[in-house]
Amino acid sequence: MEIPTPSMTKILNYQNLDTATQEVFFAVLGRLLYRANDLENWGVSLFIKGVEESGKSAVGKLVQHFFKQENVAVISEDRHREGYEQVDLDKSLFVCMSMTKHWEIPAAAFKSATPGLFIGSQVGHSELPAATLSKRLLVCEFSERFASLDPDLDDKLEAELPALIVKCQQAYMSMINKCAGRCIWTCVPHYFKRMQLKFETNQIKRFLAEPQQFTVGEALKMPLIKFGTMFRAFLQTNSICYKWNRDLLERTLKQANFKLVQDYHSTPTKSTNGPFIAGLAEEWPQLQQQLKLQPPEPQAEQDQQPPQHTAAKKRKRGRCMMQEEKKSSTKTRKTNNEP
Fold first, then answer.
1. Do 24 and 169 form a contact (C-beta atoms < 8 A)?
2. Could you report the per-residue pLDDT of 194-226, keeping only the tens digit for each?
3. Buried b (16+ CB within 10 A) or exposed e, 100-111
4. Taking the alpha carbons of 213, 199, 123, 16 in that order, is the dihedral positive or negative?
5. 87 — phi, psi (to 5°)?
6. Distance CA 66, CA 338 (A)
7. Whole-angstrom Cα distance, residue 36 to residue 10?
């Protein structure tokens, strides 16, 4: 039975999180009710990354009410390093409310028996490698700013707290059963894997994961030169300075189950001979081509008007015929007047 939490659900819906993503969101909040790794070994924490007035702070304030105030460590911006070192002593939960790229996240934050929630605008730096850090954080992006934030939102959320705790606990238990004996990353929706790639240092992997960029299929082929043009545009748009070469590209494509092939490909408008990426095609031009292949809708006869240039030709032809008839008539009169 669905447990209603309208104010919390309104925030998640406003951030365009689908049902499957919301279920994981509630489950990971439910995980905060237990000591870390007591019931599973996922080794992850939730990071709500977002802009101001997106509802992320309201969620953080509400989670602090999961336990008594003295059992919750709120790690501040000015003392975040010391805060991590203290949470293991007598706390049931730690919450980082305003993380930025200047924060330092020690490895101990993910090894602690105390569960934690990270909230902020950017991910802090860490002694952990970027690839490892990306596997430790389940990221939910709150990128939509509320046009008018409800001044009573905190009170409404607090009124939902009993129902929310039950909902999160049930979602957590359900996810434990779903992921029994498996890695957490095999159980979550693609949304979280796409967010994970934002921490990826290999920008080619990030580019391949961009939504609405590519179509995947065994019979598809994409010219390497076209991929390179699109990738450079992606780097420029995101202000990324990144060095890459053919060897790195081939290794990355192989990891993503694509490969480079030498082939010839012909379309209605162009023929290309050279290296292709097998299994990949550009999304928009393919859609354009499909639209061009659709036959035009027939028009009713009464709606079909002759083109202007055809009508002009007919008028010119009519004037020539009239001039010929006039000349013929004049010639006939002259003939009749001769003796």
1. no
2. 787 666 667 787 788 765 667 778 778 888 888
3. eeebebbeebbe
4. positive
5. -70, -25
6. 122
7. 29
| Strand pairing report for 93-99 and 72-75 | parallel
% of the chain at pLDDT higher than 90: 27
The pLDDT tens digits for 148-184 are 878 899 999 999 999 999 999 999 999 999 998 888 9
Helix count and strand count (H, E) for the chain: 14, 10
What CA dihedral angle connects 46, 52, 58 and 63, to 10 degrees? 20
5 by DSSP, 3-state: which? coil
Distance CA 187, CA 307 (A): 61
Check residue 187 and report its DSSP letter: T
Amino acid, res. 50: G
**Structure token digits, residue 271:** 């023929």
Position 266 scores a pLDDT of: 64
Domains of the chain: 6-190 (3.40.50), 202-292 (1.10.10)
Q: How far apart are CA 94 and CA 202, in angstroms?
A: 31
Residue 255: CB atoms within 10 A of its CB come to 12
Calculate the alpha carbon distances from 282 to 7, 172, 230, 234, 293 in Å.
40, 39, 9, 14, 17
Task: Provide the strand spans (E) within the chain.
Answer: 45-50, 72-75, 93-99, 104-105, 116-120, 125-126, 137-142, 214-223, 259-266, 271-282
Name the CA radius of gyration of the chain, rounded.
33
| pLDDT tens-digit map of 239-267 | 777 778 888 888 888 888 888 888 776 66
Report the 10 Å Cβ neighbour count for 49: 21
Measure the CA–CA gap between 147 and 95, rounded to whole angstroms: 27
